[in-house]
TrEMBL record, chains A, B:
Belongs to the AB hydrolase superfamily. MetX family. This is Homoserine O-succinyltransferase. Its EC number is 2.3.1.46. The lineage of its organism: Bacteria, Bacillati, Actinomycetota, Actinomycetes, Propionibacteriales. Keywords: Acyltransferase, Amino-acid biosynthesis, Cytoplasm, Methionine biosynthesis, Transferase. It comes from Nocardioides nanhaiensis.
Length: 343, 343
């Protein structure tokens, strides 16, 4: 049963686990991916291989780590491009709208299936960090430590505006077919590419683009309408690669879900958080203009106002929002210290 | 003869003049519009009606003001959607690429036609401000005062990236037809709408969007994939209105021209500016993240290093890049004082 009142069944979940659950079950950690991630968090090709692995902050020698592709995704977990068992065709636009709570509910079932009765920590960045917050709200007694990186309790008007541009590009692509492109044997490649190009600019800092590319041109010829500056080639490459690995419906559904996230507007949030003993560690990065420090500070206030134990630090990093996937100075040590602090 | 070596003839220019040229010809002011402006600067519907008019800083009771649609435009001046006299069809992608110098050359001819032998001032914001700089470089003895607002001497990698997204949206619209959409009886409406929506976010400040719209929804119903938040309706409205009044080819050509602007990379710029007696007034706005204060400060340094008289101020305004079209505190007085200062 979803928050919208609709039912979705069956639900398949793609997941990976790393490490071994202790006999007392006290060492489980769930890792929550961001908008375009998947279950492969650690190891070769893992999206968080700097954070999750043997000897890393989310230490797979020490913790039993669970990482799953989220509901609505396109990397193995049921999502809008999955087959609707009632019709034998892809759900497409008939897939129900989701909430972060729905995503958490699926992960809770997965943890139950794996025999995890409580979490040493839930860890996530960006959308993943927002999901960690939702975890605590939905199950205030389940998690000891919540690590929330480069996230927010709700999107700003500018955040929503960028999402709207991306969805507009996708849904006005003639190959979108009202979201039934799979049945038409097409993909809204152009729209998805443009959406990703626009979004990608918001994931990096202006200074990163400047330092990496500046105004360097690839060729030395006369001016041209074709891509010429290195930053254009880079952006197009990002867009084209994304189209190969990501589903447009999932992109539309998950960005739309995020627009509506606003847990503190719901009185049940305060009720839940007043009871929780979960400790929060928030981290933001000074060059992140998508989820800037002000958004983390607001969440800090919201938590503390309810008596939740929470700390925050802004770290210096030139890499914008994407810093949470990288290793800016102090970042890994900070997460490690929080996860191992017995207090 | 254009900078590219190609010739464009004939060239029509749409222009307006306000006020009367003094007998000694010493009171002429040229006003340069931004990317999507036109010749109608003053009066009802004028894009700079707060700045240009009777009793305003660019005082039409006092100055003879000339405002023209720039070369490559779509508001009366010859541009890529004009008819190519050699073929009887629209130029489309056969229109030559332009430089700011080409735009200045056309304006210089217009001024000669109007009997203007020197300028009391050239005034412009954004692209218009960049054009004012080019004016001085191309004719260092022609202009007494240069007013450059919310501009830059060259685009940043992030600026180019946003332009690239817009052009990608336009040129991958199936109705683009390689730029020959007019011959196909179509318009790349979707691409142009998406391009404008993305660009519009960069014209306003995040705090403006937040203050004006926040997370307010238009309707009270359940979540939906359709536009719902006010900021979405606003952006879409901006995009749709733009498609009605602006040509996609002009948008592609002028944004592309701007990408290549980099006058200080050309040694002739230093040569010209060392000889000029033009005084510059630069203004930036603290919430403008498209052409931020650092870009104005860089231009200030570049000018001063060549012995050019130049001053700069950052004004406080919550309205982002669009501030140059509005009336933030101190702005109009500052421009007025500079234009009337006899020193």
């Amino acid at each position: 049963m979803l928050a919208s009142g609709r039912t979705l069944a069956p639900v398949e979940v793609a997941y990976e686990t790393y490490g071994r659950l202790d006999d007392d079950g006290g060492n489980a950690v769930v890792v929550c991916h961001a908008l375009t991630g998947d279950a492969r968090a650690a190891g070769e090709g893992g999206w968080w291989r700097t954070m999750v692995g043997p000897g890393l902050p989310v230490d797979t020698d020490r913790y039993f780590v669970v990482s799953s592709n989220l509901l609505g995704g396109c990397r193995g977990t049921t999502g809008p491009s999955s087959t609707d068992p009632r019709t034998g065709r892809p759900y497409g636009p008939d897939f129900p709208l989701l909430t972060l709570g729905d995503l958490v509910a699926v992960q809770r079932r997965l943890l139950a299936h794996l025999g995890v009765a409580r979490l040493h920590a839930a860890v996530g960045g960006s959308l993943g960090g927002m999901q960690v917050l939702q975890w605590v709200i939905d199950d205030p007694g389940f998690i000891d430590r919540a690590v929330v990186v480069a996230a927010s309790s709700r999107l700003s008007a500018e955040n929503i505006a960028f999402s709207a541009v991306g969805r507009e590009a996708i849904t006005s692509d003639p190959d979108w077919h009202g979201g039934r492109y799979l049945e038409h044997g097409t993909l809204p490649r152009t729209g998805l590419r443009v959406a990703r190009m626009a979004a990608h600019i918001t994931y990096v800092a202006a200074q990163t683009l400047e330092g990496k590319f500046g105004r360097t041109r690839r060729a030395d010829g006369p001016p041209s309408l074709e891509p010429d500056f290195e930053v254009e080639h880079y952006l197009r490459h990002q867009g084209e690669g994304f189209v190969e690995r990501f589903d447009a419906l999932t992109y539309v559904y998950l960005t739309r879900m995020l627009d509506y996230v606003d847990p503190f507007a719901d009185p049940r949030t305060a009720e839940a958080l007043r009871r929780t003993r979960t400790r929060f560690q928030l981290t933001s990065f000074d060059s992140d203009w998508r989820f800037d420090t002000a958004q983390s500070l607001r969440l800090l206030e919201q938590l503390r106002a309810l008596g939740v134990r929470a700390e925050h630090a802004e770290l210096s990093s030139p890499h914008g929002h994407d810093s949470f996937l990288l290793t800016p100075p102090g970042y890994l040590d900070r997460v490690r210290a929080f996860l191992t602090d017995p207090s």
